[in-house]
Design brief:
Length: 501
């Protein structure tokens, strides 16, 4: 019988190795990978050594290092399973109609997620949404999460005075998301567990959780209740920094009260500008139709330097949200001024002069390649006048930046294979590649999808932790469709199966 989820195989038989910078002699020949105590202890030609203990037959599948998603809003992504999808809406009227037909949740609210209004031909309005949704409090969350469209009933429920449009942006929108995400643990945690199992089925062994909450208690609770599907590093937002420092939290520490070492302290997360879709990312050139709109910096440089200085002094890394070129410049300036270590999250529009600074300063580029494909039409329209480079993956890699891939789920689905396909092929749905000069080599994309990122090539070799995945195709040679549709037959976390097909 094949090993089941939760079991600990001693041998992965008949696997083929892949990955860059390999030093083994096996090429694509089948091998047996021997495991013990959560580590790889030996690799030999298939059948060359006795197969003792539980055997997992890879059946010629390709063995890769386990994958990571470096940017997930865990609860919001888990709750998306209950919310009405709006990604297919091509107009405000259609989005309103979808929500009018949606069933309310148990709390009496309708919640939809994933609309993209930047290129709609009609304008969202309160009158339009009220006509479709009536007196049921209704919330439509933008795909980028930086704006929320509410009907009158929802605005009044949340304490906002209705206007003609009903759209909240940036901090007020984040506050609405926080309220919507603040569901009881007995509702949220089973959905998080289901989300984690789905991630494991894609070869994911870990993620970075950037929920806008005090995350340590939630992860301690989940691990104590038996959560064991993924490794998690959780973020700390500025409103919680003083508490984190006072209580001695440091990046890499195991969450206090956790039942395992799977949940650890991550980075200080600071959101310094808006987004492309909401037209609030801080840019050097104005947005079309409004010569005064350059987006917005939501945290000034002096405040950012202060936050990062305090975090660095306390042993906490920094993860700085910067989408527009002005925001990226400010974030890099803050890293240079403070000596902080960590990442810039998104880096969607970067001045050419700033691209090499990532590598020189040792700042990781935590990027979401699927956003480039999702946003290509918006970028070509809304950012047409910008002179900085949009989604500069190849340029960042070529100048020494460490790339770390993620999804920003729920902004795009938690699927590292889709991220790799977007980075390598720069396309989807049969369209011509977009900004093809920024495509990455498959080996770089695979490495960027592991814990250490592209600058720390993960290998399957004796002595490494047995965080592994067995997939149907060699990701270094897979076609676009093979990469996007990659099936994973097994995922292994510290030697234990978290997914077994």
């Amino acid at each position: 019988m094949s090993p089941a989820r939760g079991e600990t195989p001693a041998v992965i038989a008949n696997a083929r190795l892949t990955g860059s910078e390999r030093t083994d002699p096996f090429e694509d020949q089948p091998v047996d990978v021997h495991l013990a105590d959560g580590f790889v202890v030996d690799i030999a030609p298939a059948g060359a050594l006795p197969r003792t203990g539980l055997v997992l037959d890879a059946a010629g599948g390709w063995l890769t290092p386990g994958l990571w998603d470096h940017h997930v809003h865990v609860v919001q992504w888990a709750l998306a399973a209950q919310r009405e999808p709006l990604g297919a809406a091509t107009s405000a009227a259609q989005a309103a109609a979808i929500m009018g037909a949606a069933a309310p949740l148990a709390d009496g609210r309708r919640v939809g997620t994933g609309f993209r209004d930047a290129l709609w031909s009609d304008e969202p309005s309160l009158e339009l949404l009220d006509a479709a949704t009536g007196d049921v409090p209704t919330y439509l969350i933008n795909a980028d999460v930086h704006s929320v469209w509410l009907n009158t009933a929802a605005l009044r429920r949340e304490g906002f005075e209705p206007d003609r449009v009903g759209i909240l942006r940036e901090d007020p929108a984040f506050e609405i998301s926080r309220r919507l995400n603040a569901v009881a643990a007995d509702i949220a945690d089973p959905l998080v567990e289901a989300m984690a199992r789905d991630a494991a089925s894609r070869g994911v062994v870990g993620l970075v959780d950037l929920d806008m909450a005090w995350n340590e208690e939630a992860w301690a609770r989940r691990t104590s209740a038996g959560f064991d599907a993924l490794r998690v590093e959780f973020g700390i937002y500025p409103e919680f920094l003083d508490r984190a420092v006072a209580e001695g939290l440091q990046t890499g520490d195991v969450a206090r009260g956790a039942a395992s070492d799977l949940a650890r302290v991550g980075s200080l997360k600071v959101i310094t500008d808006g987004s492309l879709g909401t037209r609030t990312a801080a840019t050097s050139h104005a947005y079309p139709g409004d010569s005064h709109n350059h987006g917005m910096l939501t945290v000034d440089l002096a405040t950012l330097v202060d936050l990062m200085t305090r975090a660095t002094g306390a042993g906490i890394a920094s993860a700085i949200h910067a989408i527009g070129d002005v925001a990226n410049s400010h974030a890099l300036d803050a890293f240079a001024a403070t000596g902080a270590w960590g990442t810039i999250e998104h880096a969607q529009l970067v001045a050419h002069a700033d691209i090499p600074r990532f590598g020189r300063l040792g700042v990781g580029a935590s990027v979401q390649p699927e956003h480039a494909i999702d946003d290509r039409d918006m970028t070509d329209t809304i950012w047409a006048a910008q002179t900085a480079q949009p989604y500069p993956l190849r340029s960042l890699a070529d100048t020494g930046a460490n790339l770390l891939f993620g999804s920003d789920a729920p902004v795009s689905p938690l699927d590292p294979w889709a991220a790799m396909a977007a980075a390598v092929f720069r396309t989807r749905d049969g369209r011509e590649p977009w900004q093809a000069h920024q495509s990455l080599a498959p080996a770089v994309a695979l490495a960027a999808s592991t814990h250490g990122g592209s600058a720390e090539t993960a290998r399957v070799e004796p002595g490494v932790r047995a965080d592994l995945a067995i997939c149907a195709h060699d990701p270094l040679a897979a076609s676009h469709d093979e990469l996007r549709g990659m099936t994973v037959s097994a995922t292994i976390l510290a030697g234990r199966l978290t997914h077994a097909a």
